[in-house]
Amino acid sequence: MFALRRTKRGVLASATLAVSALALSAIPAQAFSVHAETGVTATQIKLGITIPLTGSAAPGYSKIPSAMQAYFNYVNDNGGVYGRKISLVVKDDAYLPTLAVAKTNELILKDKVFAVVGALGTANNKAVAKSVNLGRRGIPDLFLNTGYSGFADAKKYPTTFSLFPSYIMEAKIMGQYIKENFAGKKLGLIYQDDDFGTDALVGFKQAGVKFDVSVPYASGSQSAQSAQGWIGKLKAAGAEVVVMFGVTTASGAALATAAAMAYKAQWILGSVGGDATTLKAVGVPAYVLTGAMGASFLPAPTDTTDEYVKFFQGINTKYNGDAVFDNNVLVAMNTAMMTVQALRAGGKNLTHASVMSALENSGSSFASASLSPINYASGVHVGYSGYWFGTYNSAGELKPNGGAYSVYTTDSGAGAIVKSTFKRPALPANGLPTN
Amino acid sequence: MDKNIARRKIVGATFFMFLGIALFIASNIVDELRVYQGATVAVYVVAISSIILLTGYSGQISLGHGALMAVGAYAAVLSRNYWNFPIPLTFAVAVLAAALFGALLGMAAGRLSGPYLAGTTLALAVGLPSLANQFKILGGEEGLTYDVGFPPLSLGQDFTQYKWFFWIAALAALAITWVIFNILGSRYGRQWRALRSNPTAAALLGVHVARSKVLAFTISSGIAGLAGALMSMTISLVTPSAFPLSLSFAIVTGAVLAGVTLLTGSIVGAVVLVAIPEVTAALATHLGGSEKVTSNLPGLMMSTLLILSVLFFPNGPQLHRRKTRKS
């Protein structure tokens, strides 16, 4: 009797479950409209971004989404893109590859964005490419916030368009600068121990630069404590010139600890971790930064004689709550301006394919604040390719060495490093692209 | 006696078959987001059932099953990347590696119980995943790629990657739950239940307490290893950050929420774990919270649920009033 009851209950349970599963499954899948691309309606274009808003790498980069949205709001207030307003869905991935994958899944499966723009992090983007595979889904992955050279491989990442110069390019140009100006000095290097840092190692090798001491750090392990170990190694090796190829919190920790340990060297900060405002915010004393060198492909954010910087500062005041205007804000707004032009070039009948072929065909002539040329072409997804060098003064401003911006360009391979004669397009009237 | 056992097996088998068919049909109708969530639910089902076996049946607490999932995942990925094992074999490697680790852990922690065992496993959960940063071969924070390959072309062009993950995970979950169901119904399951209620009485009845405990730990770890491998499959990645402390807590919460002694509770617990971020995200948007709020709300909710369920429903939602029968 007892057994019979259990059998009945068992069968009843399984039947109920099966029926409810079927009932649940009757929820219709999203209707696929052949007329409009996912994320595009008559009035809106939805874009998505994954970026560290919290976590060990957040300082500095967390300002990017609001700065991008500020420029988008300006464009929206002035007619948008052919009448469509741009909205940016922001997801926090705390610089962790697993979260980047989860949040990107949300962006494309739940929020159903048209494209992902400015996704930050080398390891994060690699994980997303492998797992979510935007390339296979045909979803544009535009203007990644990373310089990892691999992403420019159009065969491997067919829908990805790099923007920043690659770390190999940066290391090559930096390497040449070191050889020309610091020959004979003892060289040290601190780098992030993943593809972001090893990309730079390839570039330094190309340039023929040998470091007397190399200190890798695991992403996320940067702190005042771990930095003591780094500076200790540099001190022991007697490094006179130190290249810092890490995120801002890492370069911040390194510089602050160097000051505390009274270690003096000529610091050369990579572009990723070189924003002066953020460095000061994470505790780097101004005097340590003074005299350090940095590289950038954009004009210095403090250079108000530059028409793009001046314009973006205005947008920052009006639309971004007058946040502190630093390199992160400049980078963000520049990316936003490139995005708007890409969307415009995609035409009124905006589709994934139209945006990507437009970028290949006309992307190289887009207006942007960068002093480096844009290299998009058919089958070529490389964006910028050059850097200029400067020195930080006591006010934390990066001033170009030699007084004027002299940009050097190269490629991610064995190509030579060439002084650039590129003249960038003038700022469009009122900062509103008309391409 | 035999007739009851046979009937139990038939009922169980029918149940699993029905469930399998229902899931198969569902996966073809529901949209990709639900399918992906379904894969995650399947992973949690496996993980939670390992806790049910360990805690619900043999009475041992583990707050470190996330670390055991990591062991399984890394073993699976390494066997794939270095020896090119086919996927089912990598899962087997995951189970064996985690089981071996669990056996060692079980033997080492044999004399510990209650809060001391919990503390030991907690230390493991915190310390083990970051070992990946120490050895180059484990890929550090960036992690290793776990590529299960694209779905076979015979299934059609529209067969998405996530549906493929769901089929693999669901099949594994069904299979392993069927195995656990049978183990729990065997004499080992009865030994564990005896062990749980009163180790001394069990010993007097002839149950070898230490051996039984270690066996429970071993099997539970092996299952957790499979869950780890499946989880890595769904994100195509194995990194330390995929196995944080909160994962260990989450699966214990899932087990407790749904009744730590009930195997079917693993499904309910898994669904709750996947539903919580969804619900809190909707809640956060309603309350107009920032992305920072949305990121932290699920954790808060999980902890609150765990506390509440331990306070008010320590034996799970009392759906089957077996325990409160008047003697």
List keywords for this structure.
heterodimer; A: 435 residues; alpha/beta; Rossmann fold; 2 domains; 9-stranded mixed β-sheet; 5-stranded parallel β-sheet; globular; B: 327 residues; mainly alpha; ABC transporter involved in vitamin B12 uptake, BtuC; two-stranded antiparallel ribbon; 2 strands
List the helices and strands and how they pair.
The complex is a heterodimer of chains A (435) and B (327).
Chain A: H1 2-25, E1 44-51, H2 58-61, H3 64-77, E2 85-92, H4 97-110, E3 115-117, H5 122-131, H6 134-137, E4 141-142, E5 160-161, H7 167-181, E6 187-192, H8 195-207, E7 213-217, H9 224-237, E8 241-245, H10 248-260, E9 266-269, H11 276-281, H12 286-289, E10 293-296, H13 307-319, H14 327-345, H15 352-362, E11 386-392, E12 398-400, E13 408-409, E14 418-419
Parallel strand pairs in A: 1-2, 1-3, 3-4, 4-5, 6-7, 6-8, 8-9, 9-10
Antiparallel strand pairs in A: 10-11, 11-12, 11-13, 13-14
Helix pairs in contact in A: 3-13, 3-14, 4-5, 7-8, 9-10, 13-14, 14-15
Chain B: H1 2-29, H2 32-57, H3 65-83, H4 87-108, H5 115-127, E1 144-145, H6 161-185, H7 187-197, H8 199-204, H9 209-235, E2 237-238, H10 245-257, H11 265-286, H12 291-312
Antiparallel strand pairs in B: 1-2
Determine the structural class of chain A based on helices, strands and strand pairing. alpha/beta
Do you know the CATH architecture of the largest domain in chain A?
3-Layer(aba) Sandwich
Helix tally of chain B equals 12
Distance between the termini of chain A: 81 Å
How would a textbook summarize the main sheet of chain B?
2 strands, antiparallel
Shape designation of chain B: globular
Order of helices and strands of chain A: HEHHEHEHHEEHEHEHEHEHHEHHHEEEE
Write down the CATH class of chain B.
Mainly Alpha
Query: Could you say what the CATH topology of chain B is called?
Result: ABC transporter involved in vitamin B12 uptake, BtuC
Mean pLDDT over the full residue set of chain B: 85
Number of domains of chain A: 2
Characterize the overall form of chain A.
Answer: globular
The total tally of domains of chain B equals 1
Supply the CATH superfamily name of the largest domain in chain A. Answer: Response regulator
